[in-house]
Amino acid sequence: MDQFNHITSEARFDDQQFLHVVSLEQLKERELFDADAMVIEATDEKVIRAMLRQIRGMRFKNFYLKPIFVSDEGLSPELVQQTDGLLSFERIQACMQRSAAIGRRIREVRTINNRYSFKEAALVKTLQYLYTREVDLQPFRSREAKIGYVFPYLSSLIEDREVPILLDILKKAEEEGWLEGELIDRVNLCKDCYGGYLNFRESCPKCHSIDLVAVELIHHFRCAHIGPASDFERGDKLICPKCDKELRHIGIDYDKPSEIYHCNSCGHESQETTMKAKCVDCGTVNELQHLQTRAIKNYQVTAFGRDLAIGGFKKFDPQEVPLQQDQRILAYEVWHIFYQHELQRIQLRKLNSYLGALRLKEAPLAHLDQTTREKIMRESLLTISHYIRPVDSVTARDLNTFLLLLPEIKAKDIKVLHEILDYNIQKLLGDNLGIAGIIEYIEFFPVGAELNIEQL
Fold first, then answer.
1. In what side-by-side order are the strands of the sheet with 285-287?
2. Is 270 left (phi over 0), alpha (psi -120 to 50) or beta?
3. Per-residue pLDDT for 10 more than 60?
4. pLDDT tens, 165-220?
């Protein structure tokens, strides 16, 4: 690994570009987009987990499916399993081949739809991860995980406190035939927080105290008396309290058939105790019958699962609505690629390019049916395209949000465009829907690496 110590940002192996990062601050969207793979050189496992969570949580497939390697051989095996492997000098060729194979399969799948629920997005992302890596979903034991197991990729999408969501996703995927499971374990989880770290302890059936003492019973064969050992003890001898005979030999004079439990809190004695489980995470004392018992399984992707990984759920996507043959109107994925290239271009040539964001208010549109919403989105895109230059482009990130890329435009032209769009979009929707003040905002920003378009 000494041969990599001097690398701080990126390196090329043959025709592949590997982005090397040490901290979260180095995760720049533009560099990550350009790289074929990423190498995390951090040694702090918390930092690595945070990086994985941030990247896997992104929306674009070239980000959330990016091949990711680690370089520290001292990392826990469970954490390495959540990446695409360990990059060492001896394994460069193998890692290059793996990265290239993953990249080819990433091109076969579609970026998740904006209209997916959180669970749907997590499921499709996980299926795509398994498909592009050609692996099964095999859970690994982990003391860091709330339920004691980690599922590669899926666990990095879901916070530990949301473990019920993870289990629900896997259950749904198996029920729908997208995954096929093989049982490897069952876990008992806290009824309140789904924590798997439980302390099982016996308690008094009368007052529920755990301050119990086990007391041996002695059975005197001759007179059939049974009582606590303390009743027989007189100095160093055992004397039956019923018949006053000395008990000398166990098995001949007496035996010890069982124990009883004495509660030091209330004095109650009983041969039965109540078993309860106290959650180490939240402190809830669980009756055993109230514990959540869940199956832990190895999962294989089925043929239906592969179809879902490639094509996604059949839902409306604003990027895919057929539009007029206007080359300025682009699908979001294509528009995003143009945006990334413009980022590089302005850095090389010091140009003034702008990104525009126009968003419609949700409340006045929420009552409309899906078909009407789609029509509004199409008409808005067409209206915007009428007033931008041939070199400009526009896309719909979702039903309400429109993004414009305006290369090499003057500030005074931006002001004019702002006024034109404000008037014409308001007029389009006001005349057709009778809604005034439909625009939530129109803003323009200089294109730059520090601009996070996902937050616009």
1. 198-203, 274-279, 285-287
2. beta
3. no
4. 999 999 999 999 999 999 999 999 999 999 999 999 989 988 988 998 888 888 99
Number of helices (H) and strands (E) in the chain: give both, helices first. 13, 22
Q: What angle do CA 363, 364, 368 make, to 5 degrees?
A: 100
Residue 181 tokens read as: 């499971």
The answer to whether the CB of 88 falls within 8 A of the CB of 72 is no
Token match 């954490």: residue? 79
Token code pair at residue 133: 């890596």
Give the domain extent around 245.
205-272
- Alpha-carbon distance of 328 to 389, in angstroms, equals 8
H-run or E-run covering 255: strand 254-255
pLDDT tens track for 238-257:
999 989 888 988 888 888 88
Verify that 356 and 303 share a domain, yes or no.
no
| 92-106 and 118-133 helices, crossing angle to 10° | 130
Contacts of 245 (CB under 8 A, 6+ apart): 220, 222, 223, 239, 253
Q: Do 421 and 400 have their domain in common?
A: yes
**Residue 397 is assigned to a structural domain of this protein:** yes
Tell me the C-alpha distance between 221 and 252, whole Å. 8
